[in-house]
Amino acid sequence: MTGDKLTGEVFYTSEETRNKAHIKDRAVLDLKAKKDYKKFWADIAGDLHWFKKWDEILDDSKKPFYKWFTGGETNISYNCLDRHLNTFRRNKLALIWEGEPGDVRTMSYFRLHQETCRFANVLKSMGVNKGDRVTIYMGRIPEIITAMLACARIGAVHSVVYGGFSVESLTERIEDSRSRVLIVADGSYQRGKVVPLKDIADEALQRAGTVEHVVVVKRTGQPVLMEPGRDMWYHELVSLPIASHNCQLEVMSAEDPLFILYTSGTTGKPKAILHTHGGYMVGTYATTRYYLDLQEEDRFWCSADPGWITGHSYIVYGPLLNGGTTFMYEGAPYHPYPNRWWQMIEKYGINIFYTAPTAIRGFMRFGDAWARRHNLTSLRILGSVGEPINPEAWKWYYNVIGNGKCPVIDTWWQTETGMHMIAPFPTDPLKPGSGGLPFPGIEMDVLDESGKPAGRNTEGYLVIKTPWPSMVRTLFNDPEKFRQQYWERFPGYYFTGDSARIDDDGYIWVIGRVDDVIKVSGYRLGSADIESALVSHPAVAEAAAIGVPHDIKGNVIHAFVILRDGQQGSESLTGELVKHIGHEVGPIAKPEKIEFVDKLPKTRSGKIMRRVLKAQAMGEDPGNISTIED
Ligand code: WT7
To answer: What secondary structure letter does DSSP report for 52?
Structure first.
C-alpha cells in the first residue's frame, strides 16, 4: 500500500523496520483472507501444535455461539512451553522480570516449563480438575504467569482478578466463578508502598464462601494471617515431593474453556468473558507476530497488567506462543522518577514496547528530557492500546520515544475480541489517531441507528461482521445475556459498544464507548460498579456515575449522590465515600468529584439518564429529554 493518495496526515515506518517486518505487504494477506478467510486462519493455526487436527475450521450452525477448530485437540500451555523445548529455545529467556525495588529474575523456557509443571502438580494434589475455576489475585510477579500456565496445563479455567481491585470486586468474582482455589500474593509493591493483597483477600473470603484452598506467594514479606487448613505458602508447596518437574498435561478440545475474565458491561455486575484453548491461541499468536512483529531475537515489553486482557494476550500467551522473550515490570510508570521505564528499555534493550495512551500523556507532562537521557535505539516497534490515542500523544511517542523510526501500532480490541482487531501493520502508512484497517479476514463496519451502513466520514456504531477465532464464546453462567449484549442490537453482527467513523481511505477512527462503560486511564469500569459501591454505604440512598473527559486519564469519574434522610453532604462525607469506593471496588474507581443532589434525571420507567448528567457536567445541551420523568 502506498500512501500517495491518502487523506490527512500520514507517517511511515523507517525502511529498516519495514524491511525486517514479518509482513512486507498487507495486501498479500488481505488477498488470501478475502479468497477464503477460514483457510486463512487454518493456515495460521497450522504453525501451532495440535494433538489431533480439527475436523471443521468454523462451525457456525449455532450462531452466535460460534465454534472454531472443532474436533481439534491441543493445549495452549503446551504450545507456550513444551513445544519450544526440543528447539534452541530451550535455553532462551522466556521471561525477564524486574521488581519495583530493582530485583531481577529471569527464566529460560526450560525453567518456566519446570516451574509450571511443579505448580500444576500442586493444583492437581488439591483436587483441581479439568474445567474447575481457579482465581488468581496478585501483582505483576513471575508467579502470576506460572499460575496461569499451570491452570491451562491441567485444563483448569483461570480467572485472574486485577491486583488493583479490592474487596467487593474480588468477592463477586470468586463467588460468580465458584472458585475452590485462590492463588494470592502476600502483597505487591506500588510506588514504594505495599498493597496488602492477602488482607484484602481475607476480607473477601469472609464474604465469599466457595474457597477451600488459598496458596500464598511470598513477595513483600509483610506479616499476613495464615489460616490453618486453608492457607499454604507457595514456596513450601512447590518444594514438596508431589511438585515434581513432570506433570502430565490435559489434552484439551479446541473449544474447551481456557479462562474467564470479568469485565464491566452496560449494566449490572461484571460479566465473565469466556475464551477457549484453540481459537484464542491462534488469534493471539497471529497478532503478536504480524501486528507487533515479534521476532526471534526480540525483547518484548507489554506494560499492561496480567489482570486485564492485554496482559493475558500480550504479556503471557501471545509472546510465549511465538517463543519470544517477554519482559514484565512490577511497578508503576513514574516511580521513583519519570525515567523508570526508559531506564529499563535501555538496560534490557527492549525492541517492542506496547503501552497505553494515558501513560504516554503522563510522560509528556514531565517533558522530553527524562526520555532523552536514555538510549532507546533498541526500539523497533511501539504499540498503543486501551483508548483512542490523541494525535499529539501519538506524535510525541513516535518522535521522542521512537525517534521517528518506529511505527506506532495503535491496536483497537476488547476483552471480548481476545486479540487485536484493528491496527496498522508496521509497513502500512500510519495516521495518528486511527488504527487503520481490520486484521485480514475480519470485516467491520460503522452503522447508523437503524442498522444501515453509516457511509464514509459519518459517526456511527462499530460492528464486526465476520467471526474470528479468538472471539468471546459466551458469558460464563449467562449465555442468554451474551446473545442480548452483543448480538441483538444489530442482528447478525457483533456490536462492540463503541462509536467510530471510517474515512475516505477506509481507516477506522474509534471515538469511544456509547454505553455505560467508562475508560479511566485505559481501565474498563462500569457506571454500575461505582454506583453499587456507593449505595452499599449507609449514608447513600441513590447514586449515578458518569465518565467525564480528562487530559491525561482519558476520562475521570463524576458521581451524583442522593443521601438518605437525615444525612448531610459535607467534605468529610465526600472523603469517606471516595475511600469506601477504593476499599470496595479499587483505587482506580475513585471518583474525582462527588456531587450531592436531591434528584436524578430518570426516564418514566425509572432508568437514570446518565447522558443528561454527562451533558450537564460538560456544559453541553442534553439533547432530546422528552422521555425524562421530572
Ligand atoms: C474498549 C475495550 C486493553 C485491551 C483492550 C481493551 C477501548 C481499546 C482502543 C484503541 C480506541 C480503544 C474501546 C473498547 N479501546 N483499544 N486502540 N483505540 N479505543 O480491552 O478493557 O475490554 O476495553 O477499550 O472503547 O471497546 P477492554
So the answer is: B
